[in-house]
Amino acid sequence: MSRPTPCPSLLRKPALAVSVIALLQASCGPGYQVPAVTPQLVKIARAPQSRLERGYTVHQAKCAKCHSFENPADYGIDELKHEIMPKMARKAKLDMADQEAVLAYLLAARQIPPAPGS
Asked: At what angle do helices 96-109 and 49-61 cross, to 10 degrees?
C-alpha cells in the first residue's frame, strides 16, 4: 500500500517548494519585538515603572493571546487613545486601570525605534 504524497506538484518543482518554505518561514518570523520595560522606556514615558510593567504584563497576558505585538509607532496617538484601546480593551475585558497601563506602555513603546531586523 503506497502512501499518498502530501503535495505532489511541490515535489516535482523543487524551486517552488523551496520558495514556499522560505515564504512560510519569513511570515512566521518574530516581526516587531516587544520592548522590555527598561530605564530608557521609563524615562521616555514619564510614567511610574510599576505602571509600565503592569501594561507590559497585561498586554502579554491579554492582547498577545489574539495577535502579535505591532509597532505602536504605526498608529497615531489619538488613534491609539480613542479608537484602538477602547475597542481592544472591551474585547479583552480590561478594567480601566489595566487599560490605562497598557496605553501608557504602548505610548512609551511607540517612541523606541524597532530593533534591527524587526
From this structure: 100
